[in-house]
Amino acid sequence: MGAKSKKVSKNKSNKISPSSQLSNRTKEGASDFLPLEAGPGQKLSQPQESKIGATVLYIGRIPHGFYENEMQAFFSQFGKVKRLRIARNKKTGKSKHFGFIEFEDPEVAEVVADCMHNYLLFEHLLQVQLIPPEHVHPKLWKGFDYRKKPVDWVQIEQKRLNKERTLEEHNKLVEKIMKRDRKRRKRIEAAGIDFECPEIVGNILPAPKKIKFED
Asked: Could you tell me which residues belong to the region Disordered (predicted)?
């Protein structure tokens, strides 16, 4: 009897209460809760960002030719479009192939995000994602008008380069060109390359001819 009682007491001492197991696991940080059956503990999934009431969508990989008017007509089949915007280059006005669209109904925006994500359009897979209301920038729709023509910087630069210059302005321009040419020659010589640079044409202006008028 004494030996049996000692064995029973040893077995009881080896058993650990569930409360002590829970405290040990929380201290170790191995898991967030104990499973009902035997097995390793599992960690709780982290809560995702709240997208309740989100009406603004990000649209990426917009193909060439699918612009504001086309987007307005295409997405209006899902519901009423409140606003839309395609990111454009300020100088050239060309599309940056991503934009934003806002619907009046949050349910419509959620349906569009589910249906149009990875939708193949003109060999481009559209990337459509809901933007939580707290992540929408307050200046996203401020001062935007895609109908306004951007400044034609190419034409402005052409006029600047092709303008008529005085003799003094022309000499300054030629001097800058010759200075860059001398620096280039020095770099070529320092690199040990045997190369004869061609002379720049037009560095010296010919003297104007005098015109004689008959008496």
From this structure: 1-47
Residue 179: CA count within 13 A, CB half-sphere: 6
Q: Backbone phi, then psi, for 157, in 5-degree steps?
A: -70, -35
- Closest residue by Cα to residue 172 from 205, 130, 143, 197: 205
Using CB atoms within 10 A of its CB, is residue 76 exposed (0-12), middle (13-18) or buried (19+)? exposed
Q: Model confidence over 22-49: pLDDT tens digits?
A: 445 444 444 444 455 555 555 545 545 5
- CA–centroid distance for 201 within its chain: 45
pTM: 0.49
